[in-house]
Amino acid sequence: MAGDATKTFSNDVLWGGGRSPFSISYGKMMMWFFLVSDALTFSGLLVAYGFVRHSTMEAWPIGEEVFRALPGLTGSYPLIYVALMTAILIFSSVTMVLAVEAGHRMDKKGVIKWMFLTVIGGAFFVGSQAWEWSHFIHGGGGYITTADGSKYWVHNDTHDTHDPANAPGFHLVPAQAGHYLIPAEGAAHLDHDASLKLWNERVNYVDGANMVRNEYGPPQYANFFFFITGFHGFHVFSGVVINIIVLIMAIQGVFHRRGHYEMIEKAGLYWHFVDLVWVFVFTFFYLL
Amino acid sequence: MERDDIIEYSLDAHHSEEDGRKIRRKIWMVTGLLAVVTAIEVVVGAYWKEWFPGAWTAVKWAFVFLTLVKATYIVMTFMHLGDERRNIRAIILLPYALFILYLLWIALMESNFVHWSWATMQ
Fold it and tell me: On the CB side of A207, how many CA atoms lie within 13 Å of its CA?
């Protein structure tokens, strides 16, 4: 567009010294180099996830079965919450690029308005992720395994996982292999006495998720969930902090006095990168 | 604030109201596209078993393709890489693509081999 990069210069001027052949400022170029190295880190994590998933012999959890809850609602809403988080992040990416555009027109009011909305969107995303982690860690009641290797989902009315057998409405449901919280085909809910008998003979009770084991599938599944979304979430958090600092500087008129709003563009590059990583996490962790 | 020790490219990056309108129109178009693609991914992710039973491989590759479409629009429009000079674009994208395609290839080969050897041992 109307940036310096599109101006035409002859090659003698560009490569003859005194002018960057890339027509890009030092700060922007270094931000790009940092983003490339950060992208390699995230790619490494996602490729490692793919490696484990392809090499494992255990059934791997299915995204739309594990992530189907909404805050304050019962019932099944596959991937809706993650889609909502994606929408929030895309929305805050749009407000960011609008702030950059306002900066190119030296429109201080526009920059402040759009940067403010970007910070709000980022804060909403970090908050959503906190809820998702909490829900993932607490889980949906857990399962027990018996001596013959059968697996049963544990249900009760109060979602008590500390002493589920004494909670009202306690019963077990025979589990379908390779699926999360789905009963085996044709299997009825066991009555209270049969459930209690199996509960007392249980070999293992796994509820929620931690770094050692989880109710969704192989331990690596939760480990990758915590590491990939955690690493991304920390990037979002740092992005929000950077955006707040840049917003305060814009309000104080630092960039206006400097004569250009390139700092918004550099913060924007980082912020869009965070959105870009989420696009890949969404596909490779939640969809595939 | 004038500095003479660096060439301040940012000073040349200003644009007019007219340019701004054009850029904003493009931004909203890309926003709509990203929203539509994400909506398609979520709906297909939730209902593909009912709609396309047994077509998981095709659905999977469709997801990968749509992800690359979204990534291209974010990098080229939102991050303005499409507006930069061709050589900086190549310096950023080519080494990355080279490393990651190689890493993907080697990791998928190895993981499938590990899976196969465990399956044989059982």
Answer: 15
Distance separating alpha carbons of residues B108 and A50, to the nearest angstrom: 7
pTM attached to this predicted model: 0.91
Which two structure tokens, joined as six digits, stand for B19?
């340019």
CB A161 within 8 A of CB A207: yes
User: Which residue ranges form the domains of chain A, and what is each CATH number?
Assistant: 23-138+217-287 (1.20.120.80), 143-206 (no CATH)
Quote the distance between the C-alpha of residue A217 and its chain's center: 19
- Find the radius of gyration of the CA atoms of chain A: 25
In the structure encoding, which two tokens stand for residue A161, read together? 């996982």
Rg, C-alpha atoms of chain B: 22
Selected for mutation to probe chain A from B4, B10, B43 (highest A CB count within 10 Å) is B10
Q: Could you tell me if residue A189 is left (phi over 0), alpha (psi between -120 and 50 degrees) or otherwise beta?
A: beta
Q: Tell me the pLDDT tens digit for each residue of A44-95.
A: 999 999 999 999 988 899 988 999 888 888 888 888 999 999 999 999 999 9
Question: Best mutation site among B16, B78, B115 for testing chain A: the one with the most A CBs within 10 Å?
Answer: B78
ipTM of the complex: 0.90
- E strand or H helix that includes residue B54: none
